[in-house]
Amino acid sequence: MSPGEWRGKNISESNRILILGESHYGEVESIGKPVPYATSGVVEEYLSHREPGGGSARWDRFFDRIAESFGYSHERSSEFYEKVWFGNYVPVLCGKGATNKAEHFMKISRREYNDSLFSFVNQNDISVIVCFSKAVFWNLPAAADEDRDSYKEISLPALGGRGNVINTYEYKAGVPHGACGIVLDEDLKIYGIRHPSAKGGFNARSVYSSLTNMEDLSDLILK
Fold first, then answer.
1. Residue 141 pLDDT class (50, 70, 90 cuts)
2. What is the C-alpha to C-alpha distance for residues 76 and 135, in angstroms, rounded to an integer?
3. For 76-126, what is the HEC assignment?
4. Taking residues 173-187, what's their average pLDDT?
5. Are 17 and 217 in contact (CB under 8 A)?
6. Quick check: pTM over 0.85?
7. Tens digit of pLDDT for each residue in 78-89?
8. Is 135 helix (H, G, I), strand (E, B) or coil?
C-alpha cells in the first residue's frame, strides 16, 4: 500500500469499504522511488475542487468516475469519499502513459504488496475492497489451497468492441493464500473493475447499474 491512505469521516463500523487504486504517477526520473507524499493529500486536493472543471481535470476525472460508479455526481462526490477508505496498491512512483511501470513493480513485488494490503485489511477491519484496476485485481493473493474461496463474474456492456466484466472474489479467513504471507482475520469480498482511465473507455453508468444489486455495497450506493 502507498503511504498515508485516505480515511473518510463517515465510514461504517459494520461494513468498512476500501476503494483500491493502482499507483501514483511521477515523472520518468522518479520511477521506482517511494511515494514521497500521502495518498490522503491527493484525495484532499481533489475534494477542494467542487466546481465542475476545477483543478487538474484529467486526474479529477479519475476520482469522479469512481464516485459516479456508486451514483454520486462531481458535486456530491465528497459525500462518497467520506464513507470510504482510499488507497493505492503500489507504494512507488510508476511514471505515466508509455513510461508507466506499475505492472512491472507489481510482478516483481507481488508478495510484498499483498502482505501490505492484507495487513491493512486486518488492522482496519476492512470488509469489502472495490479495486479499480484489473492489473491489481489479478496480482492479488492466489486461491486458498483448501479451495474455499469463490470467484464470479458480472457481465457489463462491451466497451470498444471488447468484453467487459466486473470480477468478484471472496477470500476466506483463517487459511493461507498464495503470493501472500498474511492470513485474513475475517472473510473479504473484492470487486475488480477496469481502471477509469483504461484504453477503450469507462462507463460509470453500467458499473453503477450492476453494483446497485450488491447487498454488501448497499450502504454506499446512492439511489
1. very high
2. 29
3. HHHHHHCCCEEEECCCECCCCHHHCCHHHHHHHCHHHHHHHHHHHHHHHCE
4. 96
5. yes
6. yes
7. 999 999 999 999
8. helix
Spatial CB neighbours of 143, under 8 Å, sequence gap ≥ 6: 149, 151, 177, 178
Strand pairing partners for 126? 16
Helix ranges (H only) for the chain are: 39-47, 57-68, 77-81, 102-108, 110-124, 134-137, 204-211
* Cα 13 to Cα 89: distance, rounded to the nearest angstrom: 23
What average pLDDT does the chain have? 93
How far apart are the C-alpha atoms of 55 and 84, rounded to whole Å? 22
Q: What is the mean pLDDT of residues 35-60?
A: 79
Amino acid at residue number 187: D
* Nearest CA-CA partner of 99 in 20, 21, 29: 29
Spell out the CATH class of 6-217: alpha beta
> Which DSSP state fits 25?
-
Instruction: Count how many Cα atoms sit within 13 Å of the Cα of residue 47 in the half-sphere of its side chain.
Output: 17
Predicted confidence at residue 82, as pLDDT, reads: 98
User: Residue 2 in contact with residue 35, Cβ under 8 Å?
Assistant: yes
Distance CA 212, CA 220 (A): 9
Secondary structure of residue 167 in the 3-state scheme = strand
Determine the Cα–Cα distance for residues 158 and 142; give it in Å rounded to an integer.
27
Please count the residues of the chain: 223
For cell 516483481, the residue is 108
Sorted by where each begins, the domain ranges of the chain are 6-217
